[in-house]
Model the fold of this input.
Amino acid sequence: MSRRSIPRCFNQAKRLSFPLPYSRSRPFSISAPRRMNPLMETSGFSDTQLQVREAIAKICSNFPDEYWAAHDESGEYPHELHAALSKDGWIGIALPEDLGGSGLGISEATMMLHTISESGAGMAGAQSIHANVYATQPVAKFATPEQRQRMLPNLINGKSRVCFGVTEPNTGLETLKLRTRAVRDGDNYKVSGQKIWISSAQVASNMVLLARTTPLEEVKKPSEGLSLFFIDFDKNQPGLELKKIKKMGGRAVDANEVFFDNYSIPSDSLIGKEGQGFKIVLHGMNAERCLLAGEALGLGYAALYRASRYAKERIVFGRPIGMNQGIQHPLADAYMHLEAAKLATYHAARLYDQSRTDETITLAAVGVACNSAKYLAAEAAFKACERSVLSLGGMGYAQEYHVERYLRECFVPRIAPVSREMIMNFVGEKVLGLPRSY
Ligand SMILES: Cc1cc2nc3c(=O)[nH]c(=O)nc-3n(C[C@H](O)[C@H](O)[C@H](O)COP(=O)(O)OP(=O)(O)OC[C@H]3O[C@@H](n4cnc5c(N)ncnc54)[C@H](O)[C@@H]3O)c2cc1C
Done:
């Protein structure tokens, strides 16, 4: 089937008949919208993106804010959301159809993650699936046909899950200095080293791993000598240990330290050429920035919806608090920042998708757009979440109103997968031509 043909999950979305997303005559409720948030302007999106949004919103309506608040409290993994999305074929939204995916692009995948987050699921809901969407992109592009068939269908049908292993405790954002080694040993590689902040490692049975195959001192450029692997992540095999990290938000999805000690992986876990892993993984990293931008937007719109509803209803000094410009203007400002970041986000996703077939769109242009979008969306989300908490006054601090959870979670897109500061370093150097500052 060609990319233009109708994919499985897309078909499903078309078959279902959805109720009107939102009715202005509905009685006031400060709970999140049951289907789709009316605040986000949907003009200009493609029919496919809108159908993705509608179908995902319908699935997410079975997982209300209370579900996410309870899972945040207990730290229990949201297995049910992953199951519901994989059952309907959504995990493979941006993976090829010959593997069971839908063959759509990052533009549609971003809309999917955006809508999940916006439903009130926030970063926890989005992060429970997002590595399966972006970390698989370089595998789909650079693996051999045999590897793709072996590695991807079970992720798409939900039988297995993948985590993404890049960050290390001793190198931080200096990815080119990664120390985890994969040393060739006959038909295997032996992996030794430590990763940190690996999301979903407790539930994943595979990992997309970036490790050094040639020591830094022996390569011409630091970007060489890193290799990408798709490995079985078998916690019963010797040489692999995990330690959970207690964290501020998104607690339903585990974050972990991962320790490798001569952990054996077959040599056919290598994706693409040995030593070329950094270039290969960039393909997934740019996709991840778009998805995270979408997730941040979702949180921002969700928070703003709650705040604007509350500000309309809450009467103090004889009038709705939203009648005060001190409440109204910051919310209006937050809305405009979200809308601007939304344009940047979907522009970046479109460039990413078009660059597959249009050689005039360079990797550098895609990188600048994806990084800028992630930065802008994260900042807009933070503004919206912070102002929502303040607009709700004391109730903004109460768990039952959910905006405090959104605020805690909206720090993630500001920090990961790349920080605000590093994005500014990148734009300063690569776009403005200023001296490299790091
Ligand atoms: C919830 C969560 C989930 C995550 N999931 C994953 C995952 O699944 N897989 C994975 O591989 N990683 C994951 N990460 C890791 C994440 O990508 C890193 O935390 C992030 O890249 C920042 O790296 P660091 O924490 O080592 O920061 P550091 O490199 O230690 O930087 C600390 C601070 O210093 C600043 N800084 C450093 N150098 C400079 C400079 N030259 N100029 C200006 N500022 C500078 C940074 O911007 C940052 O603010 C996750 C992180 C979080 C919080």
Q: What stands out?
A: Residues 163-167, 172-173, 197-199, 250, 255, 412, 415-419, 421-422, 425, 438 surround flavin-adenine dinucleotide (CB under 6 Å). The first strand starts at residue 162 and ends at 165.
